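Hi R.,

Here's the chain you asked about this morning:
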Amino acid sequence: MSDTLGQLTPYAQAALYVSLGVLAGWIVDRVVARVLGRSMKRSLARRGIQAPDNIPRAIRGTFVRIGLFAGVYFGAGELALPASVRDIVNSVLFVGMVLVVTNAATHLTIAALRIYLAARGRMMPSSSIFEAIIYVMYYGVALLVVLDHFGVSIAPLLAAAGVTGIVLGLALQETLSSLIAGLQIVAAGQIKVGDYIQLDTGEEGRVTDVNWRNTVVETVVGNEVVVPNSRLATTVVTNFEMPETEFNVNVVVGVSYGSDLGRVEEVTLDVARETIAQVDGTVEGFEPFIRYQGFGDSSIDLKVFLRVYEYEARYVLVHEFVKRLHARYDREGMVIPFPQRSVHMEPER
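And the predicted structure, written out as tokens:
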């Protein structure tokens, strides 16, 4: 093998080292990803957890890049490069290796944290604020390693960073307040990505992200409501996902004073059962019920109690129930009165 390599030109030997490095990295990448994927699936399957593809995906391509860098390093050794050029090549390779390892470690940490929480029946707060913090921490350490490699003293930089931090802290008080509020929101677990919430100002929707500054809420019609974290932390918020996702739907109905209330209850419950059985998103087996509320100005008011699995499903349920109930009342001759007033005229004296 050595005799064969000796017959090649230096550039051919360098190209061969690079090719072998990439090939070896590709093989290791495929083998490690497959072994990790299978072992992870078996381990999580014993706990009744469906294994995600997070960890194999996190390291995909890492060993190919490492093999490329190793091939370039050994290939450069076969070339008669000046010492200054060799130093530049080695420095570039070192920085590239640090970035590759840091990137893989960052994605592995996020993936492992998701699996760890899934194994304990909890959802990973997949908000960008956590990912941003992990990225800053890992790449901050990588920057220090690179600076130390090039002989840059870190102590003056840390001192300058401290002074700069004080200045920025005073200038960005509101931004830092939102950052801290966002961490508190996610850490408390009372509002998570995926929850359906309603603000005290009336806006409602599903939380799609909690980043370092804002919480993003997507409404039913697809619009986004952006709420600063500092404001959300001091706002009264109704979370329809806690402590459970099932939600009672109350529909207020009014019938005329001349109605047979027993018959009204029977017909209304019949329509409610029919609607629950035929509309998606309703809680199967739930027995609807009604409660009369009192005497209104022109009707006897009652409230119908239905139930859905998720808060958003109430729109279709109420739509179908009102439509079916109106048609059934019409067939039964039951009157839903509109507001009216009786005016008594006194005779002139």
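Residues 83-119 form the longest helix (37 residues).

Let me know if you need anything else.
M.
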